[in-house]
Structures
1.
Amino acid sequence: MGKKDREKDQNVAEIIKADRSADSMFRTIIGNHFRLSQMADNKAHIMITICAGIIGLSVKELFDPQLVYAAATIILTSLVSLFFAVYSTMPKLGAQHTSDPTDPKFNVIFFSDFVHMPYEDFERQIEALVRDQRQIHQSLIKDLYSLGKVLAEKKYRHLRYCYQTFLTGLVLSAVVMTISFLAVPKP
């Protein structure tokens, strides 16, 4: 075996090692994004349950003269929190980019991009993707970026609004209840 053959074998081994590392990295990062998405959905579902329960329990207090304003405050802020929690979990398909594979925004592994393609075109695009390691990595990078944008700009942002509104409502309703007890005499 000559020097050139050994160098070629070494280059191939380095490429395989780099591909394995990249595959492992993508698998780990995309798995982490998936878990973060599940955590956000679970938190949103917990807030939906809590807000719905508070609304249900507070409605009867609207008829108590001392608690009417505090109940209205907690119901209103719970409704707003409920809105943010539901919105953070609501699926949204952005405007369809295009099913044109030459468009730089097109990503054959993202369902919203390929869903309007005929099956034969989709199959051809996937087969071409599988043959080109660089294209695979580019598609995974686009997918990873899209996942991160959805997590940051939608799920976690609106979940944060949900928690902020809920906490504000708790504090406000406590203040309003205290003022009501001091200002409105018990019948």
2.
Amino acid sequence: MILGIDLRSLPSDGSSGAGIAHASRAITRALVDAVPSGWTIKAYIPSGASIDVVGDSVELAGSRRGDLIDGLRRSPCDLLFVPSGAVPLNLPVPAIPWVHDLDIFEHPEWFPQSWLTRMRTTWMFRRGIEKAPMVFCVSEYTRRQIGARSEERSPFASRRLEASGDREARRIVVTGEGGDEGLIDVTEEERRKSKMRLTAYGIKENYLLMLGTVEPRKNLPFALSVLLPTTDYRLPTSFVIAGSDGWHINSINRAIELASKQHHIIRLRGVSDRLRRDLLISASLVLVPSLSEGFGLVALEAMQAGVPVIASNRGALPEVAGESILPLSDPSAWTKTIDRILSNNTFRQDWIEKQKRHVSRYSWKSAAEVVWRELNRS
């Protein structure tokens, strides 16, 4: 049996890309490392995309649906795994999505699409889930989202997903994600070298970090609102915002500009894999105040690096961050906790210790094992 992997989620300009691109690379590598007897892997990769895949690969002319179909016809597979979660219509092979979240259904205002485009996109997304022989998802939160949506009657769906019973339990399977497990054993020497490299970006002191595409769901204005003025902290502290500009960026940029009057803000847009790792290793504190997350990869990676994280109690973040969450309804709790983590070393170490209990639950190896186990059962 040949398992194809649709890697059109990778940027065709060779850049690292955002969260789904990182996750797509990682799950692909883990699947390749754990291929069971009787299976081979074939990756369908858009021209110019960056990934080191061991085994067979098919270069696509681009990232469009037609490019994928052309690749599948030139070099067929038996089953297609879609890490982006978005299965194109009318593929010549059964396709299994790996769903990250369904927030576009619940919060269309967070996304830049027109009403017509959104209806078309969500209809196609739902059709892909309904027609799939099974569905993988990254968290229990996302599994519940799929279940809730399957109960709704939709004029755009030909049939509904089974919302309860054994059939749904078999069809919708949680894999988890794995973060960057190399961060778990980071040495002090590696941290020192990372801090030296960061000086090239103007980062020369302790800093708080928000990492990821800057768009409404990440809730950056909230993070800015709960910071104390720089002069109120015991140590000089910068706030680093690292990630490309996303949609609805103008209002977010205005919030950053206003906050810059009280805080030392460093804005980094081009974030390579090396820079991403350096930022996580050397941060004093990572903030994840998202309005929703299908998983929470940044939170997990910071925890793996032994860096304190404060995350919101939304989406899948309680699953991933455990006790390191605070409600968005209590901004003062965020301000007080930030101050204590930065100024009280005992409190900081206790916060880090309770994070360690959650890190061991997640690995790309275990995520890949879930996928292979379920494929072998089907």
3.
Amino acid sequence: MSGTKSTSASLAGAEAVSESASPWPVFFTVCVAAFLVSIDATVLYAAFPALRKSFSSVSSADLSWVLNAYTVVYAALLVPAGRLADSLGRRRTFVAGTAMFLAASIACGISDNVNLLIVARAFQAVGAALLTPASLALVLAAFPASRRSVAVSMWGAVGALAAAIGPGLGSVLVDTLGWRWAFFMNVPAALWALYRTRTRIPPDHKAGIHFRIDVVGVVLLIVGMGGLTAAVVAIEGHTIFSPRIGLSAAIGIASLVAFVAWAKRHPDPALDLSLFSNGTYTAVNFATLTFGVAFTMMFFGFFFFMTGIWKYSLPLAGLAITPGPLLVIPVAMLSGRFAARAGHRPLLVLGSLLLAAGGVWQAYVPGLEPRYLLHWLPGQLMTGVGIGMALPSFSGAAVASLGSNRFGVGSAVNQALRQFGSVIGVALTVVIAGGTNFDLAAFHSLTLTYAALAALTAVLCLPVNTRPKAP
């Protein structure tokens, strides 16, 4: 209990500072690192063909773990990392995560062996998992309560924008400088974030901090999420009933069931299950999972269509999908102001429905003949506005009803579920797209599937209630 009290006192002190000092230096400092994490999760999809050339003796299945190792470790560690940020200190955890992400990025860039590259990617994911919930917790602490909806929406928008432009930026870098620069590009921004943290983010309060790490709970969470994630990832190269998938899923489910039993008895568990006694928090997290699947399928469907149907070059395809992502930041800023007055539910429902409408448009309007302005751009604008409304709002709605001492772990659970949704989305995209024989019919199936998932997300968001109480 003393750890909770000291953490709450620390945050209260930060909130007092935020009333008199501008919170924006903190925001821009931590968002640079958060931007790197989000962009790194997608940039290698554009670099994968170049990796196959560089490591021609390695099978595609083995090489895919350059992508999968990052996603598996990142998703599995987000929850315990959020707990660590709340216990040890947000600034301290953010610095450690950014430094590890920086060192691992350099190691990835200089790797000349695929096994070393996979290991470096796993360490890169550890750094990413540490800094992500800590960065959001720092943003929440820097802003007064009346402005947090705007701040969280913008924080989420930065991540959404980074994830959306990752393959486009990656295609340009790989085309001009080679795949190693997909990692080296992280170095200047990470160094800048570490330097700015020293002068722009107040240090954590050390006095009275007492915490206990629930080692058993952390291990069970890592094995549980890692097992389920590995099972979904394995769908890309195996049949659904293969022993490998069954074993991974069984280990994951058994570990999570064991964690639930353990957490009910432990006085200070790694993940407080009482988080899910809140109906809004539970609904937001289920919706985040389905939205993550839809977002990923939409995103990679764009590139499959541009390069496979309209035969655009990879850099041109990256440029062609940028109008939608460019709408994310301004829409998110307006959405944050709206959420501060009316809550997140209207934004989540309408944003998800716009994403579904964009999927239906793309399923029935674009054809074999490239007609970008008339047939493609309207769907892009619908999905861009929908993502700008919904995706940042998930982060805000997830923590809106939580106490200040649970910001880190609460946001980590939400981010982890979105990552797991992304893994499912990639696996479904590979199955539906039909491997290398991607055609218009496959694209139609892909877009209608993610449109249905987006519509389901809108339904799941109906119980969300974060409307501010009247003074």
4.
Amino acid sequence: MTTLLVVLSVFAAVVPMVGYLLLLRWMDRYEREPLSIVALAFAWGAIPAVLFGGVGSLILMAPLAFFFDVTQVTFLSGAVVAPLVEEGAKAGCLLLLYFTRNFDNPTDGFVYGAAAGLGFGMTENFLYFTSMVGEGVGAWMATVIIRTLFTGLMHATASSVIGAGLGWAKFSQHQYRGLVLPVSYLVAVFVHAFWNGFLLAPVVFDGATALPLVSFLLFPVAFMAVFAVFQTSILSERRLIKRELQFEAELGTLPVEHVAKIGSWSSRRKHQYWLSKEVSAETYFMAATLLAFRRHQRNARPNDKWYEQEVNQFRSRVVELLKGSR
């Protein structure tokens, strides 16, 4: 039975987190991030972030033993130290990706941040699942359910906040954009600390046996709030596409009637009713979408000639794709 539970721990840790990752990437409708880079963010969370988080936590926990007893150290480790260190460790890949051309907007940051969190959750879940093997099937199953439905998603939720914030700040002209990183980091730490703190409260506080239930009740609210941010970001992309392509339609790059349809996911799926069969729909939509994004980014970075080159390249690509249908 022990060997079987260890094998099942691998599947229970990997399959749900990878499933969440693929679902998240599918929901990024207008410009899906390269699977290789999403996988890289996931791998960062699964290996380097776990290592950095573990080492960092041990270093910060060492002095606590001189001032607090074992139960207090356990609580502080989970509710304070772990959130501070682990959110920084997960965000490491976001800071690296921030300087690449693939990190364009809040949606990109959300996806990369969530990917890192899911990778972290996968490895951490495996360690917890295997540690419960000796406690019996019931305890093992309870751990799997709780950590799959809650803790893994908590890691993704927390780190996605940092990613979305960095994605917004990258091309923002707001005077306070420099505060986005520390603020989003603190929000991520709060989400993490809230979850861990309420779960561990009974360890140090008498009569706090009901507090873990607060985590189970309120975390879905936090998750839905962050998910709403993700959906808002996608809607923002839709408006951006329509706005920028309207300018291109006025230049004659594409038909004006295509603007609203390219900005609508449902219209894209029904392209056979309005787009010529001679045009490769997927290629056309991607070229037009990137043209819109690069126009917006060029306006935010007027001194970076790369964006101007990209605008010209995708504009020519759109014209070329439509040439046979006109």
